[in-house]
Predict the structure.
Amino acid sequence: MKKLLLICAILTGVCSQNRIFATHEQGGDISYLHISGNDYLVTATLFVDCAGIPGAGSINLDVSSSCNSFTTALAAVDTVELTPQCIVSASTCNGGSLPGARAFVYSGIVTLPPCLDWYLSYSNCCRNNAVINLQNAGTQNIHMGTYLDNSSAPNSSPIFQQSPLLYMCNQGDFCINNTAYDIDGDSLVFTLVNPKSGPSTNIPFNAGYSATQPFGAGNSTFNSANGNICVSGAAMGAYQAAVEVREFRNGNLIAITTREFQTQVINCGLNSVEITGNVNDGSNSYSNVKVYLFEHDIDEAGMTLLDSTLTNASGDYTFTNLAHIQYMTKAEIDTTAIPGFLPSYHMGSYYWNNGQIIYSTCDSTLNGDIELASTTNPVGIGVISGYLNGYGVFRSGEVPMQGYMVYLIDLATEQLVAHAQTNEFGFYEMNNLPDGDYRILVDVPGLIHTSYHFPTISVGSTAHQMNYTATPNGIFAGDWISTLDIENVGNKTINLYPNPAQDNLIISSSEHIDKLIIHDVQGKIVMNIHQPSSQNIDVSNLPSGIYVVRINGRHVEKFVKE
């Protein structure tokens, strides 16, 4: 199986020797996930230039409100390169000379007393002096923060689904994806704002630039519905921008999350690019297969069909003289002429992840290989089922979604094991499954996965209610239930204690418990109990961390295992 070539909005690099970065931190954002009571899992993401000072092992988070303030350390938990490997050379993240950047992720549990107006922030000196749209950028702090009100009801912040585009060519149109997903189902409003040097100190722009036109007057458009910025015609140089996400519940403002980023517009030296690929099943290539070229957008409705072609006798196809924008390719299989395969997207639809946008600032020829997925299911006795519903993606309201492909991936081999298609009720089922550990993927074109189900089949067991919800901002594992609905103080029927728990978790419920599922914050199921004989659940074997309990498919609660 070929590995993905993710040349996309979250993995974007440049191939230019012209470096203008003087400092290492280019932006970032802060998010929080409500755990229980006054405890929040706080995560800070920093975008860092690989040629600068290496990312620290921890950062200090400033926490303040009108009734309290303190500083706490967040430990580094992950790092990922934001620039793909170019064919011509390696980036500075890998010992090369080409520009490169990483995202450093810091996280920790923070207890917030029940005050109003909490502000979580991080500051550091100083900004890149070569930023052309800010006044005296090199003398200004970099600052990022998020507000929340935890006095009335629990809340988790929106999560940005893709890292911003840190480099773009000046030869074409490019879009920076600032889409955010909110697990509580709150209304989100996106606004372009001033970068800040402190909690309430805006950094002024140079003449010709502003918060709403950070790339120069008339050189960018902004979508307030999803936070996306599309840039065309900007002069070469480094630009700083900030997107604010205001979170509303029942018409009331309850939180503000801000992302700041630095984007460099460069001359890539490429007047046009071409996409070339091969349609195959891993062993054999297929001729006369229709391949479509789309201009990529956030969901299927927004994608624009630009061209189509047929593969030649060797299974190859090519689209030439393309402008510098983001693309997606899709193969349409004639199942009569080529039986036994499913339609698939760029590099295989069951690997749909992070948009899979074909895009580069480095190479003039881009790889668009498409690997077909077999329709053959294995022989076994295990069963997995669930349904897919939509929350405003293609229809208004929460409704079933018919005709979408669901794929079962073996975790050990990353190979496709089985597939199903949702029926008119949004229901799917996969039968005759062998024992194993799996990941379930749903293919809704243009939407990324924000979380997954990770079922285990053992001795012919079943895994039901593997439900997914498709929102305009991504696909997540579970039914659409906001924490406001499930944790309403006046109507709460489920309680977990002690929380945090060490060996035993007691579930107090006013209704009979038919099914109890516990999964970690990544969505992996760690306990699945049908008709539990006791409300005292042994969690002593679970690793320390945050877990979610789903009861009877409706009630959702969180607890911490110490």
